[in-house]
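Example with several molecule types.
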Amino acid sequence: MTGTNMSDIPAAGGQIHDDTGSLAGELQPVSSPVGRKGLSARRWPPSLVAGVIMVGVTVLVGLVSFVWTPYSIDSTGDGGRLAGPSADFWIGTDRLGRDLFSQLMTGAQSAIIVAVAAVLIAGALGVVIGILAAGTTKTVDVALLNLIDLMIAFPTLLLAMLVVTVRGASLSSAVLAIGISGSAVIARVTRVNASRVLREDYVTASIASGTGWFGVVARHVLPNILPMLLVQLMILAGSAILAEASLSYLGLGAPPPAPSWGRMLKEAQSTLSVQPWGAIVPGIAIAWTVLGLNLLGDGLRERLDPSLRGDR
Amino acid sequence: MGRFIAVRVASLIVSLFVASVLIFAVLRLLPGGPAGSLLGVGTTAEQLEQLREELGMNQSLVAQYGDWIGGLFSGSTTSFVSGMPVNELIASKLPVTIPLSLAAFVVSVLVSVPLGVIAGVYRNSAIGVGVSALSQLGLAVPVFWVGVVLVWVFSLQAGILPSGGFPRQGWNDFGGAVSALVLPVITIAIAMSSIMVRYVRSATLDVLDADYIRTARSIGFSRGGALARHGLRNGAVPVVAILGIELATSLLGAVVVENVFALPGLGSELLSAVTSRDFPVIQNLVLFLTAVVLVMNFAVDLIQRAIDPRLRLVSASAGGGAL
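Resulting structure tokens for the full complex:
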């Protein structure tokens, strides 16, 4: 919510955008100018390249921070308190004299952990529920769909606050809430696409020739819905990072000393007039990573769905 | 239409019920629970038992749920912390949160609809691409960061607006209240417009490419005339759907942004309740916010149907369920 709340945004945005996309693809595949770019369309779209590079940088920084940071994140070195950017302290120091750049690097770790864990939870839960809804009786399907819609409407931030109330503020509480909340969107996308696959003639043929339910799901449904899922999961990873940032900004994320961009920003806010970089730079790091993930999602969508090429 | 409304109202009530059960379940069934988390570590089993008794937690879950909903309607539920009736507490915060979210909503619609249409109509020119790029950026930026940057620029550097807080006299100090809300409103509106622009642009593109526009042009309508007569209503359908979600989003944006600007609204109240584990306040406030979101979705359904006659056919045959 930008948070979390606002974090719902990219998720909802991606989802609805995607629904119209798949609808257009389904109903009028011919009307889009598919062949216009000819062979060059097989190249990676620019947004995919940009997304891979941006996310790559964050992941790299996060990995490097495990083995090296300019200073230890809790050492109150000799740079003085609230120092501005300098050759020794690239974005300055915080009010305890700790190096901000080292904190920024280490903060990438929580962002990566949250993104990966939330995607795994949401992916596993959402795909199972979505395929169940697509494959069962009409009554169960309608019940599940209504539950999914309710979960989509239920804001991530509020769910996270409920979980934190009971379990206490921690990275695992945040991940749990974000993952469960995200699973609703994944379930929706899975349900819509899986039931389309299940209506295909080759699935009927496969069932007629004796393939079991599990076989149909593994051999036909999953491979066919995978591209759509990948796109959604990328967008979800972005909103998970935003949601975690909001939670830790509000003091409901991982408690100190665990590094977090959201909390860095919160801590720097009170000294904004003296050392603004401490608040500004973590926000740029969050935006950089989330933008990268969104571009990655858009690029994948473009690469995988030919009907979207060219226009959007 | 009458039957449709009846069905939708029934489903709204069921949704509210299910939402309340989910909220209750998360708060009561996850390990921890009110009594344990209120007392913290180092308490004796006796103290715990006494508190559980006071909180009515030794009753069956169904009875506890009944107590909660009963207290909600009778207004008898009180805060653990301040002892104030929860309904009064919520009502006292609305004069901050409602103007904040409504103003943010209105501003973002006024900004994003024209921008989205421009981004769609001039999709291949610099201005269209620029607007799209800005909205991509806006989607990725955390809302609280926007608030902090605005404070830095307009309060600390320029010194023209307050960096936070709300006048003690509330809306009696009208000028003070308005200037306290300017930056928070802009903060939420920037975040919301970023999403809205994408939808409006997408709807505009669909309309521009539509066969009925080409037909209208071929029988003599000007481009603007065809868009005004056929484009607006068609383009409005998906946009209205988003408006509902957005109004809800602006309310939730307020939860975060109130904390950035230290505004005494529902969001600050919710955060302090979560921090102090004030269960009655948390569960009523979360249910209240969820109810607002659900009612908004319900209203959007009705409006969409009024705009788009096709939806009436679809929902008549399919029950309005799936896609």
